[in-house]
């Protein structure tokens, strides 16, 4: 076991040295810093765009989307066209898909967009409420939010990958030392595997922290874009209360209560701080509070239960 441990240490140390020399050689041959940054950023954005286009196609297949013919919903199309004209974007086609809950999703940008809706959304919302949700999705198309977030994720993955490559010699050496020590102690195969995994985790901890920080930043950006889309929808429709009601209806339908008290309570966001930080959308209550603030009125939804209020804003669901 001692001989094997020493052999493992020599093998891993040699591999770490070879990788280290290779990285030094690449670094010595690198182009100018500005060129390097442009090349890396260009590749990240290119891969991100390809991923985005493929992701849109895959999402449409997964949702089993079917374009809604204009002849079946002429009034809905006219309202979407009026909202799109107000935002100076091309009116997108409308499609229905199987989302499993009342919801809407914007795909694409201001000139090639598509809005996918679950059929239940059309039955759940009144006309002003549906218009407000459609305006919210059009706001996402207007600023290409889905594409920007995908490109941001691609840049994060690229930077994280480069950090992993830079730390590769240290990771190889740390794993080799851990395995060698496990052999020298006469550890069982399970103990050797455990030691290897622990060493890998410790050696890559910095990369994990970096990835976590970037992920928090991306999620915070995503939540801000939801607020911005809400504000843009209110600006276009002039109906903050309608959007607030629509959000409450969707939230209620997406999280149905069970039992005898189901008509007396509405589900809130009983989640931990970390979960909220990693969420792509702000808490529904916070969004409705902002809309109620803008309208100066209470946001009410007929036939539902009382919702929590905050910041001096009473959100009552009757």
Automatic annotation (TrEMBL):
Q: Which UniProt keywords apply?
A: Cell membrane, Hydrolase, Membrane, Metal-binding, Metalloprotease, Protease, Transmembrane, Transmembrane helix, Zinc
Concerning InterPro entries, the annotation shows: HtpX_protease, Peptidase_M48
Domain Peptidase M48, by residue range, is 71-294
* Entry superkingdom: Archaea
Q: Which cofactor does it need?
A: Zn(2+)
Q: Per the annotation, how and in what number is the cofactor bound?
A: Binds 1 zinc ion per subunit.
Q: Which Pfam families match?
A: Peptidase_M48
Membrane spanning segments where? 31-52, 159-179, 199-218
GO BP: any one term: proteolysis
Q: Name one GO molecular function term.
A: metal ion binding
Similarity annotation: Belongs to the peptidase M48 family.
What protein name applies here? Peptidase M48 domain-containing protein
Species name: Haloglomus irregulare
